[in-house]
């Protein structure tokens, strides 16, 4: 069946890679602030800024089968330099805007036989990492939200979370900005490389497909072994 899949974000990074994988088989709607990167890709772009706008539901189909929320942040600083406002901002973009849009889209998600929702966390929720207090807190909220939502709406919706480690996308460019940084980051991972957007898009595509119809309420680490292996 040709599904209607809404990507909040999808103009670049992991969301774009998901769109590339799925556009030929499904109807893809990308809601984001920019669309220059989309070129002639056969998707429907909806101008949308999660921090300002309500999504224009009238341009969306009545039935949404797949939903992915991509906006996020990597705000790594010592706790003492992170103001409460910085925590609030991370909470807004990662978590609160997600809650708001899922709430708005409930009627369209309920029109699907079994909607699949995919959110993003981070490896830094499962293992404590210095300088991650704000982002780990915001992504931890997503993990709790996703499990509770999955329980409340089973079997109608499936809700799963992908928890990546460092992945080479525009969001991570400050951490991977030169060869030295890349080498250090590659070596931190048991698999000796950071993630590529495609590594994460592969699992997201699976979670959006019927092949994962018995998987819900999961937080899936896609992290080059970072969250579970200690090889030092
Ligand atoms: N990359 C990593 O290392 C990494 C690691 C762990 C977790 N994650 C998580 O994985 C998810 C995807 O990350 P990514 O690396 O693909 O990020 P990215 O490269 O920054 O892409 C984010 C996407 O979301 C859109 N977006 C951002 N702010 C938005 C807003 N206010 N309103 C509407 N759309 C907005 C962007 O489009 P526009 O700019 O066009 O609006 C873009 O399409 C994030 O939640 C991130 O926290 C990433």
From TrEMBL:
**What GO molecular function annotations does the UniProt record carry, in alphabetical order?**
oxidoreductase activity
* Segments crossing the lipid bilayer: none
Q: What is this protein called?
A: SDR family oxidoreductase
Q: Which UniProt keywords apply?
A: Oxidoreductase
Against Pfam families, the record matches this protein to:
adh_short_C2
Q: Which Gene3D superfamilies match?
A: NAD(P)-binding Rossmann-like Domain
**PANTHER family given in the database record:** DIHYDROANTICAPSIN 7-DEHYDROGENASE
Q: Which InterPro entries match?
A: NAD(P)-bd_dom_sf, SDR_DHRS6-like, SDR_fam
Which superkingdom, per the lineage?
Answer: Bacteria
Q: Could you say which protein family the record assigns here?
A: Belongs to the short-chain dehydrogenases/reductases (SDR) family.
């Amino acid at each position: 069946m040709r599904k209607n899949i809404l990507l909040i974000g999808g103009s670049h990074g992991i969301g774009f890679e998901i769109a590339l994988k799925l556009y030929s088989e499904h109807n893809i709607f990308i809601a984001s602030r920019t669309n220059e990167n989309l070129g002639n890709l056969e998707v429907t772009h909806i101008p949308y800024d999660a921090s300002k706008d309500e999504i224009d539901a009238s341009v969306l189909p009545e039935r949404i089968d797949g939903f992915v929320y991509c906006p996020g942040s990597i705000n790594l600083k010592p706790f003492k330099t992170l103001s409460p406002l910085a925590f609030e901002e991370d909470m807004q973009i990662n978590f609160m805007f997600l809650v708001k849009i899922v709430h708005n889209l409930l009627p369209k998600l309920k029109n699907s036989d079994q909607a699949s929702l995919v959110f993003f966390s981070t490896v830094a929720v499962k293992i404590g990492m210095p300088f991650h207090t704000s982002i780990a807190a915001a992504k931890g909220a997503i993990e709790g939200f996703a499990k509770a939502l999955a329980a409340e709406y089973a079997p109608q919706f499936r809700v799963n979370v992908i928890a990546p480690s460092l992945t080479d996308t525009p969001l991570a460019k400050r951490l991977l900005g030169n060869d030295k940084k890349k080498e250090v980051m590659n070596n931190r991972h048991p698999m000796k490389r950071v993630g590529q957007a495609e590594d994460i898009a592969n699992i997201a595509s699976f979670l959006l497909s019927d092949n994962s119809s018995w998987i819900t309420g999961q937080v899936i680490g896609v992290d080059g072994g970072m969250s579970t292996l200690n090889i030092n």
